[in-house]
UniProtKB/TrEMBL annotation:
DUF2231 domain ranges (all copies): 32-165
Record-linked InterPro entries: DUF2231_TM
Keyword field: Membrane, Transmembrane, Transmembrane helix
Protein name as catalogued: DUF2231 domain-containing protein
Species of origin: Lujinxingia vulgaris
Residues that span the membrane, as ranges: 136-154
């Protein structure tokens, strides 16, 4: 604890015995950071939805089935929010190389597909008191896809520096700081990013780029 306190003091000390206000030094974040904040909703809720339905079906507990039904609705809401914020983030991050781009396109397209599937599953589930085998199989497929796209998201950040300012992974003009004085700019930039992101989705799908990471072979380094 003493080491942690010393490190914090060293970070925040300005040299004259004063420390900068936390809201200025630590709390301001950028528009693209909304995506990693929101993406945890479907990642956490979909396993709950499917897991509760599986337990409810095999134990006969209606309460668990009801939890599964409601959690799937929340999963779909979280998926929509995550997808929209993902389009915003896509336009605000800087990536270099075909491998990084392939991961981004695959991450985005599969997440859009999983979100659409979750919306369909909400309507499907509402018509049943307990989940059918087909519904559960679809849910497990969705979970597999969700975990794969989560891995791709981690690769984009931790391997390629997407959205990391110190790694040069942010296009600052596309990701203003989330401060009250920037409210109009944040809304305008966010809307513009969504429009541009949707345009890129359509263009790349027309070019046949659905999940390029699945067929991408990075060049081998020279021996």
């Amino acid at each position: 604890m003493a080491v942690a306190r010393q490190s914090f003091k060293e970070i925040t000390d300005t040299g004259d015995g004063c420390r900068p206000p936390l809201n200025g030094a630590f709390m301001a974040t950028r528009l693209h950071v909304l995506h990693p904040m929101l993406v945890h909703m479907p990642l956490a809720l979909m396993p709950v939805a499917i897991g509760a339905d599986v337990l409810g079906k095999f134990t006969g507990q209606r309460g668990l089935c009801e939890l599964g039904r409601r959690a799937m609705g929340l999963t779909a809401v979280g998926g929509v929010l995550s997808s929209v914020s993902g389009l915003v983030a896509q336009e605000a991050v800087h990536l270099e190389g075909e491998e990084a781009r392939a991961k981004l396109v695959t991450h985005r397209n599969l997440n859009l597909g999983i979100t659409a599937a979750a919306l369909v599953m909400v309507g499907w589930r509402r018509r049943m008191k307990e989940p059918s085998p087909g519904y559960l199989l679809s849910g497990f497929g969705g979970l597999a896809g969700l975990f794969y796209t989560a891995w791709l998201g981690g690769e984009l950040v931790y391997r390629h520096g997407a959205g990391v300012e110190r790694a040069g992974g942010v296009r600052e003009e596309k990701s203003p700081e989330l401060l009250p004085k920037n409210a109009r700019r944040v809304v305008g930039t966010g809307a513009a990013n969504v429009r541009e992101g949707a345009k890129h989705v359509v263009e790349e799908l027309k070019d046949g780029e659905v999940a390029p990471q699945l067929r991408f072979n990075p060049p081998m380094p020279p021996s």
